[in-house]
Specification:
Blueprint: H1 8-23, H2 29-37, E1 58-59, E2 65-66, H3 69-79, E3 86-90, H4 96-104, E4 107-112, H5 115-125, E5 132-136, E6 149-154, H6 163-167, E7 169-179, E8 185-192, E9 198-206
Parallel strand pairs: 3-4, 3-6, 4-5, 6-7
Antiparallel strand pairs: 1-2, 7-8, 8-9
């Protein structure tokens, strides 16, 4: 069970995290403000309290991980997110990334395929003050009933870009997804230019858990 208490100690650790992110080149003020606001230790077992604000990934339920803060910041930066945009997150995981997006001002739809993890994270998010709608299912199919989305963020490594997700972007919308069939994946951003045209950009390499589903692994 997450420790839902924010103390002078954890607030101090969070200030150090902000400094660490700035030292690594992250200077986007809305993103830094979100990291300052969202207590990462809420999303981890209490045993990890002292390490919760280190720039490292941790294991969570169902063989998944909570990404290191710099990876969360990097994906968020690539989204070029604006307040009041509608975002679909594929892979709810711990819920931390969804809360970062919601803290910036987005309305977040998030989908998780691991039932045990979905139930635990949904219960946690229900106790937090963010606009996050949780859904259970195959994230590679997206949420066509709620589409279109201004932004789509995938938090697991895909062998290729799921076509269903591309179809669910608005014109001008952006999809950020790690893509690759080896041990590492290349962070990729796709912008929908019109009904049939998409622009693809590639960035740094990362290592994510695999994206499982009909259009994943």
């Amino acid at each position: 069970m997450a420790l839902l208490q924010d103390t002078p100690l954890t607030r101090g650790l969070r200030k150090q995290l902000i400094k660490d992110l700035q030292d690594k080149g992250f200077h986007d003020l809305p993103i830094l403000k979100a990291f300052a606001e969202v207590p990462r230790h809420f999303f981890l077992p209490p045993i990890f309290l002292q390490q919760a604000y280190s720039d490292v990934a941790f294991p969570i339920e169902a063989g998944q991980t909570i990404s290191q803060p710099s990876t969360v910041a990097y994906q968020t930066l690539l989204l070029q997110l604006e307040p009041r945009q509608k975002v679909l997150e594929i892979g709810t995981g711990s819920g931390y990334q969804a809360c970062i997006l919601a803290s910036i001002g987005a309305t977040v739809y998030t989908i998780e395929r691991q039932m045990k993890l979905f139930n635990a994270t949904k219960a946690l998010l229900n106790n937090l003050p963010y606009r996050i709608i949780c859904r259970f299912g195959d994230g590679t199919l997206g949420l066509p009933q709620e589409a279109p989305f201004d932004r789509i963020l995938v938090t697991a490594g895909a062998p290729e870009i799921p076509k269903n997700l591309l179809k669910q972007l608005v014109i001008g919308g952006k999809l950020v997804i790690p893509v690759g069939d080896g041990e590492t994946q290349t962070m990729t951003r796709v912008t929908r230019l019109d009904e049939l045209t998409f622009e693809t950009e590639q960035f740094q390499d990362f290592r994510f858990v695999p994206l499982i589903g009909k259009q994943g692994w």
